[in-house]
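ugh ok fine here u go
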Amino acid sequence: MFIERALDEITKKNKVVVGFDLGSVYSQISYCRADQSMPDTLSLVMGEEQYNIPTRLCRKTQEGAPVWLIGRDALKAAEDGQGILIENLLQLVRENTPVQIGEEAFEAGYLLEIYLRKTLAILSAYAGTDAIGAIAVTLEEMDPVLMDAVRTAAGHVCAARTEIYFLSHEDCFFQYIIHQPSEMWIHDVLLYDYGKDGIKSHMLQINRKTSPAACFMETAQFPQMRIPDAAGGLELEKETFYRNLDAALLAILKKQCGDRVVTSIFLLGDYFSREWCRDSLKYMCRNRRVFQGNNLFSKGACYGARERLYPSTLSTSYVYLSPDKLRANIGMECDRGQEAVYLPILNAGTSWYDAKKELDVMLVRNNTIALTITPVDGSRTRVAQISLEGLPVRGNKTNRIGLRFYMEDPGAVHIEIRDKGFGEIYPSTGKIWKECLPLEAIT
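structure:
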């Protein structure tokens, strides 16, 4: 037994967790092992920080056989006229639009599977795909259709025991920050994500007066910071444009940082440059630490995957509460022998798309289920009663029911209750009860 347990621990430490930032334009992969201090990000060129893998495919014929290419290889093959470039992959998946190449039509889900398989094959040079214990996928938008397609495709690509999770960009930012040295997030932390549509900001705030510490995020969009494809043809026009852009960013900074203490600022995206945001950078660096890069989301997803597989004290000490997350613990009091115990069902901080639980319980006293609801904001615990009309309770521990908790959107917890009977002695009546618990009622 001791040897088996030791071997299991060694196997767990050798497992790789992956953060997969699946974007509409490009994707990134970060990875680490259980005992690794920080994730590495997969680079397309050894020794360089070329993390972006274009989210593109191309099908070309090579030596008489069709070959699928992804990323930069796909772009080059299409540019050389060797195949048809497939762009907007995630949009194709959302809309379930097939792609016609010659006489063949390819389902969007199949193309997504090819892209995932090829990108993870690049990772296998560093860590075999059989060694992947968990993959946390982060998306620009947590679209249920896209998430289902990714889950299905990853299930075909990965080993059976590989767990697939989803994290929003905000979740990834939270995970990344709490895994950094504490002096970087003593007070608020600000992130600017600069994309083709402008800047999106995330301000992370932590309320350390609660237990666990409740973390919140303010998000804002600044489309006025969008940089056109050609920012003026003449040098003088460019200079004026970027000077105005610097002034606009400085105004945003002063508004967001003016009345609060910000410890660190993170700048994501290739649009940030010291060549144009001179005054803004001077303001950022006043009593603050400033970092620039573009792989924070994939690293944050990797930290999140590791917390799922190998939870640390950070998981119990800090909880991120977004509008998409439960802000209360949901459980029930159960009898275990002569002792009453609390059975957790859904935990505060769980994203609605991950909020799932199935369990069987025995009814003993009556045909009512009592759910204990404990908000994490310090407000009082209360009990929600669900009555199962038409179900007689025998009192001899032969009333077995199945409970299924799930969420279809951020607004409510759904509960499906099924009479499962008790073998041949008391067959199931086939009755099913459905309840909906609005989130407003439990926060």
